[in-house]
Amino acid sequence: MVMAPHGNRAIWTDGRILMSRNTGPFNLEALILSTERTREERIRLTESGPWGSVAIIDGSVMFTAEALDMIRQNMRDPERNGNLVASAFVVSPETEGYHLCEAILGPVYALAGAAFRIFEDVDTARMWVAAKIDAAANGEVGDCA
To answer: For position 121, what pLDDT does the model report?
Structure first.
């Protein structure tokens, strides 16, 4: 049974960072739409060098099992995520799923070789991702934090 997409996503690029504002929870149908909408931009960023992402999450950070499987599949796709070096989620502690976010999504982003971290404000998240991009562009190898 096909369901209506649950979850909304606005996407824009800020330099080498793919930014998004997301309102969850998210189902497979929402992830299919998101994957289609971001594919070309992710490929462009991947082909041009190291890049990162900042996802601002409102409402809920929860995904259906099928949606999470699709995220795993997407992260394994080197055409889309070959040079993804860091992903940050901006999530307030009051957001549904906050305490599960890092444990569930950290290993998923690692499939693309990306560092993953949770932040409570956008500016700090963006600075962390930008530093990871700069380090990768300069050939530095760092930890995942």
So the answer is: 96
**What's the rounded Cα separation, in Å, for the pair 35 and 39?**
6
The class of domain 8-137 in CATH terms is alpha beta
Model confidence at 39: pLDDT above 60: yes
For the sheet containing 115-119, what is the strand order? 8-14, 17-23, 51-58, 84-90, 115-119
Place 120 in a pLDDT band, splitting at 50, 70 and 90.
very high
**pLDDT digit string (tens) for 4-19?**
545 677 889 999 999 9
pLDDT, position 3? 53
Q: Residue written as tokens 């800020």?
A: 14
Q: What is the 3-state secondary structure (H, E, C) of the chain?
A: CCCCCCCEEEEEEECCEEEEEEECCECHHHHHHHHHHHHHHHHHHHHCCCEEEEEEEECECCECHHHHHHHHHHHCCHHHHCCEEEEEEECCCCCECHHHHHHHHHHHHHCCCCEEEEECCHHHHHHHHHHHHHHHHCCCCCCCC
Among 48, 28, 52, CA closest to 132: 52
